[in-house]
Each structure stands twice: as structure tokens, then as C-alpha cells.
Design goal:
Layout lengths: L2 H5 L2 H13 L9 H14 L3 E7 L3 E8 L5 E3 L5 H7 L3 E3 L22 E8 L5 E9 L8 H36 L3 E5 L5 E4 L1 H7 L3 H4 L14 H9 L7 E6 L5 E12 L5 E9 L1 H23 L3 E6 L5 E4 L1 H7 L3 H4 L4 H4 L4 H14 L3 E8 L5 E11 L8 E8 L1 H15 L9 H13 L4 E9 L1 H8 L1 H18 L5 E6 L2 E6 L4 H16 L3 E2 L4 E2 L2 E9 L6 H18 L4 E3 L2 H22 L4 E9 L5 E12 L3 E3 L1 H10 L3 H16 L7 E5 L10 H12 L6 E6 H4 L3 H12 L4 E7 L7 H5 L4 E4 L1 H5 L5 H16 L3 E4 L5 H10 L3 E2 L10 H8 L33
Parallel strand pairs: 22-23, 25-27, 27-28, 28-29, 29-30, 30-31, 31-32
Antiparallel strand pairs: 1-2, 1-6, 2-3, 4-5, 5-6, 7-8, 7-11, 9-10, 10-11, 12-13, 12-16, 14-15, 15-16, 17-19, 17-22, 18-19, 20-21, 24-25, 24-32, 25-26
Helix pairs in contact: 3-5, 16-17, 17-18, 22-23
């Protein structure tokens, strides 16, 4: 409501606006009578403009206008609003000098309003609808009496014209409505005879107008209607409320109707009855359908899997609840109906009432979740939608609610969320959660220590005893890590046997070494499982923030570098990152790039070290060894570049090149001399090793039985069943299979039971100490004795001294290899050695060992010195 409404009194203004609205004149098209009045008013006083202004709540609207370019203006700038306020003729000689109007936007400017006259338009009810107004851009001294009289008369005519227009229009509308109505409208005289019958009555009852006029009303009422109803019709007592009865059509069919009565006065002072009759057949059918639907809805509501309830919006007491609601709340409907949440669940009442207050106040649907403790003590989580609805007695009478028991859903979601952020096996944070925690600490510049933990020998445990045992070990590792750190620290499983610990509590720098040692100690203890007792250790790389990096990526990378250094230092080592490790990583990356080029360009060459038969001194085979001479750094040890080859995915390419070259070289050797090639464990994982061997043998023309493949214990124990199956497939080609470095791993005798190797190679670590260590000598003797029983040959690697050679020969070793006989030679020189028809027979002697180092050479072959 505008400020003007308050200035003249809110109730009075509301009545005025209602009177204006009831006349239905606002926003109607222009009408000639009103346009002529506006023109006459302007000419009567010689003004430039005139209008019939109707003042609405927030605007003045011109029913007629002369010389006015717009149809309405805001009320707060309307001169006419003041006339409506005072209800008196108002004359403004010069608006610029009038304090009421001088600041009005229609006054400012050269062409603004100066002179204004407004005459109120007051209708018979006493309400002022607006004004007949005249205005001009030139000021005047005032208004002459004759001009005032003319304008007053025109204003009165305008008000009468507005009222008569409405009455005339309403009469026309009523006649049209009655004539066009589908309802029957009839009029009865005092004797209940029909004297008015509209088209709707013709259609409804089937009697044409000429037959219906003068007909008694009984003709359209079913015979079952009692005389009392006719009596009431005649007396007109039922006119204030509808009467329902059964009507009768001209064809004798019956149908339900509803009748409204009104008494119409006549000139003689006697009244007649007018009746409006509506066919309610459809309504009755709909009511029956609604009753059926209501019964069905009651069934549905009772059977819904969600709780449906209805509450009184004022008292908050339950009015309705379905069976599911009884089950969810843990109360019977008798206990619930008429009770409130405060009575049933007082501990949850405050929150519930707060939500319902918001629902009632806003009128909007509100969805909320809350916890509920039932009488049986069970805790449930409910998701409830509430909305306020109108009732039969008043608006917003009820709160309608639908509640779902989402306890299991939320528990499942919480579990999914937990699984998304935690490792399923150990319950620790997973890689993603760890990364978020690390980023958060780095972003907030919070000091911390990062420990990158890797299990020692876990892969061997996992490969030898299976994944079930491995999983049990990892689960125990997770518990031990959590026990070793504080409540503010973070423990995560990154993947496989890799874990990370963030020490973010007090003094992380001081605690890092202590906690790291505690972790190593805990993880080195035996792991008891249902199947075996496993033994692992741990290596740890440490980095400090912000001392050792600025970003999360820096910290992770430097922790990994420290871990690599720790593993290089040996099992159960702890290493703190230093700047030289980053330099080493950079150098390694550069070395990897050079290595890729070397493989692509064929710069990796083969050297061959002969294997000599201890009984004859003849060369029976030669082991192919990959060698790389870097153009800048010189010779690079295989122990350096082979792991890089495996890590960067080049092992397949290099291995194929080595196999191919070794087979081509060996093809030129005498038939009795074989070539041995080492296999990488990664070659067993690609699935096409046999195909590669078949292709290489076919391409080179080398007889398969002249090719020996050396496999290590570490390769065998990765997946024993799969490895032995693959070895059988390779042996089926005619290839010989050798066990390399025997004694350095688990040395399980079950290997020999499952797969008869052609040869076993004793690791050089045992050969080196054979003269000084009883343990080494015993191990060598045991391997040789076992091999003899299983018809396997034995090759001793790393034979460098005559004393070593004599011990090995005395113990029955069948083959010898090492610098005692020759360093690794180029393809050309090994060919010359093999084809020289010489042997190492004179070098090999079973006599008593004297400890002398006497490099040997085959007779007739130049001396080959040890490198």
C-alpha cells in the first residue's frame, strides 16, 4: 500500500480501491463518451490538456485523455492524488510556486505543468475514484466561477457515467450469462408454474420452451420427491443453501441435480422464485470415484515403504501416521496420534520444532536429516521432507511429512566414503587421501617429516607363500605402523608394500629418526599368520619440510630418492635425504636417456666368458654377458644399467637383441659348444618369451639344444607354478635350463623335485670363501652331492685362484667358470679360443690346493690375463 493510503487512513483507502476495482473500468479500451468529456473540459477553460484520471493503489490511469501523451503515471507524482486525498476541487495557478508540487518531475523543465485544476469524481457510495483534471504549461491567475461550474458539472456527469456504465454492463453480462449458461434457469410463479425457461433448461430436461412455459414444476421432479420439498420450494425457504434432488427428463430418465433458489420481487409486492439448476451427475460420479480413490490412497499410504505423517501446524501433534511410521518411531498409532515429538522424543524436540517453525514460516518444502533413538534403544537416521498445507478450517493448517529410514543407506555411503579414502586391506589412508593430507600441510606451510617405508623381502614372501599370506603380513604392518606413531601423525598405504608416514605433531625434525628406528624395529619382528611365520624388514627414506622442498612433488620425489639410497645401503637401513641424492637422480635420468639411445643404436655389445669342463679342461659353453661402454663415462657396470633397463621398460628389446646376437655368434662355434643367456624375471611376465625364442632360433639357425637359459631363484619364487609351467614350455623346444646363483635365495630343494634343471650354478660368493669358510665349503659340497644324485651338472662361478679350483675339483664340481680361465671376451676372441683346438686340461689339477693364483690358458692358445 502506498504512502497515500496511510495519509487518508488505511481502511478508507482500501474501501475506495475496492470500489474502484468493482467497477471494472481500469485498463479498459477508450470509450467515446469519456473522450468527449475530456475534450470539453480542456476547451471549457482553454487549456492545452485534460484527462479523466482514476487513482489506483500505486498509479493514476487515464480513462480518457486529451493532449496527454501517456496513459498512466506513478501515483507518487500525480497531482490528482492530492485531490483524492482532500476530496475537494483543487486549483494550482503556478505549480512552480506551490510547495506541494514545485519539486514534481512533471513541473520541471520549460514545458512542465504550471496551471492545474482537479475536480474529484465522487460516486453514489461516496468514494472518490479520481479526478477530472485540466492542466497547462502556462501559469494562470486562477479559475473563473463559470469555468469552475462547467468543470464541476462535467465531473458529476463523468461519475454518473462510470456507475451507469457498470450497471448497464452488468445487466448485459447477466442476460448473456443466463442465456448462454449450460445450467437450467427457471422462474416459478406463486402456483409453482414455470414462466421462464432458458436454453440450458431445454437441453437439461428435454422440453422445448413452448412446452415448458406454464408447466407445473412437478413435471421435472422425480416421483420419489416428497411433498415437503415442493412445500419448501413454494415457500422459498431453501434459497440460502443448495437443494439436491432427483430430476426427471422428458424421456422419463432420472438424474441428480442441485438447485439454488432466489425470490424476485414483482410490482404487486408479491415475489416469484428463480431457480438455478445444475446437473450434478458428473459430480456424483466423481464423488463415488473420490471415495474409491480415497480408500485406495488410504491403502497406498498404509503400504508405502516410507513414513507418512500429518501434524497440526499449531499444536504440532500428530493427526495421521501410517504403519511404516509406527515401525520407524517404535510406537503404535494410538500412542502417536494426539502426541507431539516433545512428548514422544523429548531429546530430539528442539531440533524438530526448529525445522517445523521454518516450514510454517516459509511455506516452502524443507528436507532435513536427523537422528532418532527409539524406545528400544536403536538409533535410526531419518531423511524427512516437510511442507505446510491448507486444511478445511484455515490456511497452513497442517504439516505434511514424508520420512525415510536412511540408516543403512548412510552407513553404506559412509563405508563407500571410507573405502574411497582408506586402504581396504590395512584400513590406513590410501594414496589419494595421503596426497590430500600432504598437499594441505604443504599449502599451510606446516613443518613435518615424511617417511617413505618399503618392506624388505616382502616380494619373496608374497611369491613363495602366496597372496593370502602376503595380505596378512600387510595388515599386520599397518597395525604396527599405527602403533609406532602419535595421534597427530598420518599413516598411509601407497600401494603394494609401500607405505608413507607423515610426522606432523610436535618437533617432527627431532622425532623423525627415533620414529623411523622404531618402525624398522617393529617391522623386523616375525609375522605370525595362520599358515607360516614370515620374516620381513623395512627400509626408510626420510625428508623434512620445509627444509628439503617447496612443493608436494618435491617432498615425494626426495623421499623416494632417500628410500632408494636406503635400499642400496642394505636391508633395514634408514636414510635422510640430502642434496647429492637429487644430483644422483638427475645423473641416473641422463644415463637412462643415453641407455635408450645405446640400445636403439646397437651400442650394447656381447662379451662371452667360457665355461670349462673340470674333467677334460675343454670349453663346453660360454655365457653371453651384455656390456656397455658409455661414450663419456666409459664402461658402465651391468649391475648399474640392467636395473635401469628393467625399470624403464626396455628389457624386452634388449633381451631380444642379446638372444639374437648370441645365437648368431654361437652358430659359428663348434657343435659341442653351447651359449648361455641370462633371463630377466620381467621376460616371464610378457607372455611371449617362447614365441621370441622360436623366432630367434629359426632366424639364426642355431640348434635349440645348443642354447642354455639361466634363471635365478628370485625369478622362480615369484610365481612357482607359473614359472615352472613356462620353463616346461621352453624346455619342450630342446633348450637347456640352468639354475643361476643357487644358494643366494631360499635354495628350496622342492625346486629340483618340481623341475629337473640341466645345470646348477653355484654363486661366486660361496666359491670366494671356499678355502677359508667351512660353511661355504659345506654348502658347495652339499649342492654338488645333491646335483650328482639328481644327474645335474654343477657350474662354479667366480673361480679366480688355483686353490679355489682345486677345492672345487676335489669336491666333484663338473664345470668351472671365472677369471682363472678367462675374462669375458669379444665374439671374435671367444671364437678364436674355442676353435684353437686347445684346452685347459693342464690348468685343471685335482692336487692339493696351495693357494697360489695361476691364471690358466688352453694349450696352444695365447695367455688370457685376468682383468
Amino acid at each position: 500500500m502506498s504512502d497515500f493510503a496511510h495519509s487518508i487512513g488505511l481502511p478508507a483507502e482500501c474501501e475506495r480501491l475496492n470500489a474502484l476495482a468493482d467497477l471494472n473500468i481500469l485498463d479498459t479500451p477508450a470509450e467515446r463518451e469519456f473522450d468527449e468529456i475530456a475534450h470539453l473540459a480542456a476547451e471549457a477553460i482553454g487549456a492545452e490538456s485534460a484527462a479523466i484520471s482514476l487513482v489506483d493503489a500505486d498509479r493514476q490511469w487515464f480513462k480518457a485523455r486529451y493532449g496527454v501523451p501517456f496513459s498512466e503515471t506513478p501515483r507518487d507524482v500525480a497531482f490528482c492524488s492530492y485531490v483524492v486525498d482532500t476530496r475537494e476541487l483543487t486549483v494550482v495557478p503556478d505549480a512552480r510556486l506551490d510547495t506541494r508540487f514545485k519539486d514534481n518531475p512533471f513541473v520541471s523543465g520549460e514545458d512542465g505543468i504550471r496551471f492545474y485544476v482537479g475536480v474529484p469524481l465522487i460516486i453514489s457510495s461516496g468514494h472518490c475514484l479520481g479526478t477530472l483534471c485540466v492542466f497547462d504549461p502556462a501559469p494562470r491567475d486562477g479559475l473563473r466561477p463559470d469555468q469552475q461550474a462547467v468543470l464541476t458539472t462535467l465531473a458529476k456527469v463523468t461519475a454518473e457515467l462510470i456507475e451507469s456504465r457498470q450497471s448497464r454492463r452488468m445487466g448485459e453480462i447477466a442476460a448473456r450469462i443466463v442465456d448462454a449458461s449450460t445450467e437450467a434457469v427457471i422462474c416459478l410463479d406463486a402456483a409453482s408454474h414455470i414462466y421462464y425457461w432458458n436454453h440450458g433448461a431445454e437441453d437439461m430436461f428435454g422440453y422445448p420452451l413452448e412446452d415448458a412455459i406454464g408447466m407445473h414444476v412437478e413435471k421435472v421432479i422425480a416421483s420419489g420427491l416428497t411433498a415437503s420439498l415442493l412445500h419448501e420450494i413454494n415457500r422459498g425457504r431453501k434459497r440460502n443453501s443448495p437443494v439436491e434432488f432427483t430430476a426427471l427428463r422428458s424421456d422419463g430418465s432420472e438424474f441428480p441435480v442441485e438447485m439454488l433458489l432466489a425470490r424476485l420481487p414483482t410490482g404487486e409486492g408479491q415475489g416469484v422464485l428463480a431457480a438455478v439448476i445444475r446437473d450434478i451427475s458428473e459430480r456424483k460420479a466423481m464423488e463415488r470415484e473420490q471415495q474409491h480413490t480415497r480408500a485406495m490412497l488410504d491403502n497406498i499410504v498404509s503400504s508405502l515403504p516410507a513414513m507418512i505423517f500429518l501434524k497440526d501446524a499449531d499444536t504440532r501433534e500428530y493427526v495421521l501416521v501410517n504403519r511404516v511410521g509406527e515401525r520407524i518411531l517404535g510406537h503404535s498409532s494410538e500412542e502417536i496420534i494426539g502426541s507431539s515429538v516433545r512428548k514422544l522424543f523429548p531429546q530430539h524436540a528442539d531440533r524438530c520444532e526448529q525445522i517445523e517453525d521454518e516450514v510454517v514460516a516459509s511455506g516452502e518444502k524443507i528436507v532435513s536429516e536427523s537422528e532418532l533413538v527409539r524406545p528400544d534403544g536403536r538409533q535410526r537416521k531419518l531423511r524427512t521432507s516437510r511442507i505446510v498445507i491448507d486444511g478445511p478450517d484455515r490456511p497452513r493448517q497442517y504439516i505434511l511429512g514424508l520420512a525415510e529410514d536412511v540408516t543403512e543407506v548412510r552407513q553404506a555411503e559412509a563405508e563407500v566414503l571410507r573405502l574411497a579414502h582408506h586402504d581396504t586391506l590395512t584400513g590406513l589412508k590410501n594414496r589419494g587421501n595421503f596426497a590430500e593430507s600432504l598437499n594441505r600441510l604443504v599449502d599451510t606451510r606446516t613443518p613435518f617429516a615424511l617417511l617413505s617405508v618399503d618392506l624388505d623381502r616382502f616380494k619373496a614372501v608374497n611369491d613363495q607363500f602366496g597372496h593370502l599370506v602376503g595380505d596378512e603380513v600387510l595388515a599386520q604392518v599397518g597395525k604396527r605402523l599405527e602403533a609406532a606413531v602419535g595421534p597427530d601423525d598420518i599413516v598411509a598405504r601407497i600401494g603394494g608394500d609401500e607405505f608413507c608416514v607423515i610426522l606432523a605433531g610436535k618437533r617432527p625434525d627431532d622425532r623423525a629418526a627415533v620414529v623411523a628406528q622404531a618402525i624398522v624395529d617393529r617391522l623386523s619382528e616375525p609375522y605370525s599368520t595362520d599358515r607360516i611365520v614370515a620374516h620381513c624388514g623395512a627400509s626408510i627414506g626420510m625428508v623434512l619440510f620445509p627444509q628439503h622442498g617447496k612443493t608436494s612433488a618435491d617432498v615425494r620425489q626426495f623421499a623416494d630418492l632417500a628410500l632408494y639410497r636406503a635400499k642400496d645401503d642394505g636391508n633395514r637401513s634408514i636414510c635422510l635425504f640430502s642434496a647429492d641424492m637429487a644430483d644422483a637422480a638427475h645423473n641416473r635420468h641422463a644415463l637412462e636417456a643415453d641407455l635408450r639411445k645405446a640400445i636403439d643404436n646397437g651400442e650394447i655389445e656381447l662379451k662371452y666368458q667360457p665355461v670349462v669342463a673340470a674333467g677334460t679342461g675343454q670349453i663346453t659353453s660360454a655365457e653371453a654377458l651384455a656390456r656397455w661402454t658409455h661414450p663419456v663415462h666409459g664402461p658402465i657396470s651391468p649391475e648399474v644399467f640392467i636395473p635401469i633397463v628393467e625399470e624403464c621398460g626396455l628389457i624386452d628389446t634388449l633381451s631380444r637383441n642379446v638372444l639374437r646376437q648370441a645365437c648368431f655368434d654361437a652358430r659359428t662355434w663348434p657343435e659341442h659348444v653351447r651359449v648361455a643367456v641370462n633371463l630377466s624375471p620381467l621376460q616371464f611376465q610378457n607372455g611371449y618369451l617362447r614365441d621370441t625364442l622360436e623366432d630367434v632360433l629359426d632366424e639364426s639357425g642355431l640348434t635349440p639344444n645348443r642354447l642354455q637359459l639361466e634363471v635365478t631363484e628370485s625369478l622362480v619364487i615369484r610365481d612357482i607354478e607359473r614359472t615352472f609351467a613356462e620353463l616346461e614350455r621352453l624346455r619342450s623346444l630342446g633348450i637347456q635350463i640352468l639354475m643361476d646363483d643357487f644358494g643366494t635365495g631360499y635354495s628350496s630343494l622342492c625346486y629340483f623335485q618340481r623341475f629337473p634343471f640341466d645345470k646348477v650354478k653355484i654363486d661366486k660368493s660361496f666359491v670366494r670363501d671356499i678355502a677359508t669358510s667351512r660353511a661355504s665349503r659345506a654348502i658347495v659340497q652339499a649342492v654338488i652331492g645333491l646335483s650328482r644324485q639328481l644327474d645335474m651338472k654343477v657350474v662354479a662361478e667366480g673361480v679366480e685362484t688355483e686353490q679355489q679350483m682345486r677345492h672345487l675339483v676335489a669336491l666333484g664340481c663338473t664345470h668351472l667358470q671365472g677369471f682363472m680361465f678367462s675374462e669375458p671376451l669379444s665374439a671374435k676372441r671367444i671364437f678364436e679360443m674355442i676353435t684353437s683346438a686347445g684346452s685347459f686340461r693342464e690348468t685343471i689339477s685335482p692336487g692339493p690346493p696351495d693357494g697360489r693364483h695361476r691364471p690358466g690358458r688352453p694349450s696352444g692358445f695365447p695367455h688370457i690375463s685376468a682383468a
